[in-house]
Amino acid sequence: MRMAHVVKHHFETNAIAMRMVRKEAGAAARAVGATEYDAGRVELAVCEAIANAHVHAYDGDPGPIVLEITYEPGRFSVAVHDDGPRTGPPFEPKFPEPPDPKVGNGFGLQIIKRVMDYASLEHYGANGHGTTVRMGIWLK
Amino acid sequence: MEYTSIPPYFQISSEEIPYAAVLRVAGEVDVGSAPSLKERLMGLIVEDSPGTIVVDFQSVTFLDMSGVRVLEVCHRRAAQQGLRFILVGSAPLVHKILVIVELDKRMPLVETMGEALEMLGRAG
């Protein structure tokens, strides 16, 4: 039987909480066998996912985030859920193509896609609220 | 979103060497510390600056997009002032983010201070 172990953190997007939570995600990855480098990948991806929610879901204001950390044998996954209305252009639940460096948007998601072993985006709610970034690494 | 109530977890120091101002950064550059980095870096990019700004990232252990944006903005400002901007070093994960955002294609990125000094020597 594959047992999944899940830990959830609820917090608001502000600089100190974001630092605490990304550190916790990295520590959790190390606790189940991730290397320093792999734990660093987790920290970076979590940081970018929360920053993305902070800017695009909450327009730079504090807003609620749920970070869900899951360990299963052989893999370590993280989901970052926000509950915000997306601002700006209509949100496409997909990772952007490599963005134009001159424009500068979309790099957070691109980093997540490139540093993690797997990643996906979900957009839910009929009123356009709420986005989840799911991502993870394989544990050797 | 700068941190104001927790102990600092990154350090910045600066010195002038022939032809360059060097900013040494150690620790983590993230959404909370990036504003301090920007302030110090912009402080070096002034009219009477030496011809090159060297940013030493060899002891930076974490860098996110907020830090990358600071580097980009300061690089652009330096170029406007006619100054050269060299970024030195990077831990593997820091290097990875610089490559993903293609910063390595937009500014000189070298591995050691020795290489940076060599570039300065060639320029000076």
Brief rundown of the structure:
Chain A has 140 residues and is of the alpha+beta class. Chain A contains 3 helices and 5 strands; from the N terminus they run βααββαββ. In chain B, helix 1 (34-44) packs parallel to helix 2 (65-80).
Distance between the termini of chain A: 19 Å
Order of helices and strands of chain A: EHHEEHEE
Oligomer: heterodimer
| Low-pLDDT residue intervals, each spanning 5 or more residues of chain A | none
The average pLDDT value of chain B, as a whole number, equals: 90
Strand content of chain B: 25-35%
Can you tell me the overall shape of chain B? globular
Task: Let me know the number of strands of chain B.
Answer: 5
Helix content of chain A: 25-40%
- Looking across the biggest beta sheet of chain B, what order are the strands in? 1-2-3-4-5
Largest sheet of chain B: 5 strands, mixed
Fraction of residues of chain B in helices? 40-55%
Radius of gyration of chain A: 15 Å
- Amount of beta strand of chain A: 25-35%
Q: Can you list the strand order of the major beta sheet of chain A? A: 1-2-3-5-4
How is this fold's topology laid out?
The complex is a heterodimer of chains A (140) and B (124).
Chain A lengths: L4 E8 L2 H17 L4 H22 L6 E9 L2 E11 L21 H9 L2 E6 L5 E10 L2
Antiparallel strand pairs in A: 1-2, 2-3, 3-5, 4-5
Chain B lengths: L9 E8 L2 E10 L4 H11 L7 E12 L1 H16 L3 E5 L3 H9 L2 H4 L2 E2 L2 H11 L1
